[in-house]
Amino acid sequence: MKLTLPLQGYFELLRHQPGEKKYVCINCGRPVSGLYRQISSTVLKIIDCEKCKNPADKYIEFEVLIILIDLILLSKPAYRHILYNSDCKNLWKIGCILILLEAYCFWTDAFRGITSISYRSHVNDPFLSEKGFYLSTVHFVAGFCLLYGFIYLFTRVLHRTVPSVTGNGKSYPHMLLHGVILASIGKFLFIPIIIWRENSTETGMAIHIVLVLVYFVISLVQIHSVVSECARSRSCMIVILAFILKAYFLTRVSGLLQEFV
C-alpha cells in the first residue's frame, strides 16, 4: 500500500524511537509500537492492532479534509488520531483564536440574546470601547480556565482510575487540555453571527448560539470519554457539572470586570 502521508505540515505524525509504544490504536485505544511498516522507499504498510485486529491508524493515508469531516461528525477514531498519533503543534494557537473570536462576539453584543452581561461603555470614547474588548477576552480566558479546572477536578473525584500517563506517554492533564481546545473548534460556527448579525433577529441569534454551545458540549463529552477512558454517561455527568459551576463562578468574575467599564 502506497502512502503519501498527506498530513505533512498539518498534523505531523509523532516521532518516537522504534519499539516504544507511544502511539495508540484509534479503534480501541491500546498502545502500539508503530503505525506503519516501511516495505520499500516508496511503499508503506499500515500495522494492524494486536487487540482489535483492525488497522492501527487508517487516517495516515487519508486527506486532511476527510479527517476534518470525521472530526465534525464527532468520530472517536478521528479524535484519537489527532490527540495521540499527531503532533498538534498549533493547537494552542487555535485556542487563542477561538477565545478572541468569542470575545469579539461578546464585545459587539452578538450574545445579547442569551446574556445580560456587557462590557461596552456608553461613553463615546475609543479607548473605553477598546478596553471593553480586553475585558471580554479576560472573561473568556477565565471561563476556559474554570471549565478545564472543574473537568479535571470532577474527573479525579468521580473517575478515580484515570491514568497519570496516557497511551502515548503524555501526562493526563496535558492531553485533557488538548482535548478541551480540540472540542472548542466547533465555536468557529460563531463566525456567521458576526457576518449576518445585522440581518438576524435576537431570537434567531440566540437559537444559533445555543445550538453551537450544545454541539460544543457534545464534542467535549466525546473527547473526555476518549482521553479519560470512561463511559459517555460518566463523561456527560462530569462535563455538565463542570459547566454549571463554571457558569456560577464566571458570573461572579463578570461582576468584578463590569466595574472597570
TrEMBL record:
GO biological process: intracellular sterol transport; regulation of plasma membrane sterol distribution; sphingolipid metabolic process; sterol metabolic process
Membrane topology: Multi-pass membrane protein
Pfam family for this entry, one: Arv1
A single GO cellular-component term on record: Golgi apparatus
Keywords: Endoplasmic reticulum, Lipid metabolism, Lipid transport, Membrane, Transmembrane, Transmembrane helix, Transport
Principal localisation: endoplasmic reticulum
Residues that span the membrane, as ranges: 91-111, 132-155, 175-195, 207-225, 231-250
Subcellular location: Endoplasmic reticulum membrane
Record carries keyword Transmembrane helix: yes
Family listed: Belongs to the ARV1 family.
Function: Mediator of sterol homeostasis involved in sterol uptake, trafficking and distribution into membranes.
Name the record gives this protein: Protein ARV
Organism listed in the record: Anopheles dirus
